Amino acid sequence: MTNYGAIPTSSHGSPVVDLDSISRVKQHIKEGLATRRPWRAMFDFHSMGLPRGVSDAFSRIKKNLVYFQTNYAIVFLVVIFFSLIKHPTSLIVLTVLVFVWIFLYFLRDEPIKLFSYQVDDKTVLVCLSVVTIVLLFLTDATLNIAGALLIGAVLVLIHAVVRKTEDLFLDEEAAMAETLA
């Protein structure tokens, strides 16, 4: 007996899982989050201290923002997440944006190319930040988001000023960018 128009089914009882794809995604997640600096290094109490002056404070901010860039992005996202717990629509939008962040910022193997131009990480970070802020402001949680951004900025700046930079070792690319700036 033939079943015309029937949807073909698999001979397996459950869907086939592509283990190679899963292992590749797991590897990408590990590599993407590898740019994150260890939280112990970020909050090492022996490396905390007040700067000697304004120029030392600005120097620390500059170096720490480069060195702990991924950690600071995570801090901002966590602060925004906690501020949106009472706004489920905004929280759903944030969840979608987190996945966009993961795939466009944290898990990329190669630089993004747009109209045959290579887009660097800082540009991707700024663009994703702006898109995140604009979309979350459109969800009618403006005061919560503004407060969260202010709290996140204050936390990051306080850490960047107080965290000493003598024991931080930047990679060659970041060190070259810093000396040219």
What are the segments in which pLDDT stays under 50 over at least 5 consecutive residues?
none
Strand and helix order = HHHHHEEHHH
The chain-level mean pLDDT equals 78
Q: Whole-Å distance between the termini?
A: 76 Å
Largest sheet, in brief, is: 2 strands, antiparallel
Radius of gyration: 22 Å
If you had to describe this structure to a student in words, what would you say it looks like?
With 181 residues, this protein is mainly α. Helix content is 62%, strand content 3%. The chain is built from 8 helices and 2 strands, in the order H-H-H-H-H-E-E-H-H-H. It has a two-stranded antiparallel sheet. Strand 1 and strand 2 form a beta hairpin. Helix 3 packs across helix 7 and helix 5 packs antiparallel against helix 6. The N and C termini lie far apart (76 Å). The relative contact order is 0.15. The mean pLDDT is 78. May be involved in both secretory and endocytic intracellular trafficking in the endosomal/prevacuolar compartments.
Defining key terms:
8 helices; 62% helix; two-stranded antiparallel ribbon; 3% strand; 181 residues; mainly alpha
What order do the helices and strands come in, and which of them pair?
Elements: H1 19-32, H2 39-42, H3 54-67, H4 69-83, H5 88-106, E1 112-114, E2 117-119, H6 121-137, H7 142-162, H8 172-180
Antiparallel strand pairs: 1-2
Helix pairs in contact: 3-7, 4-7, 5-6
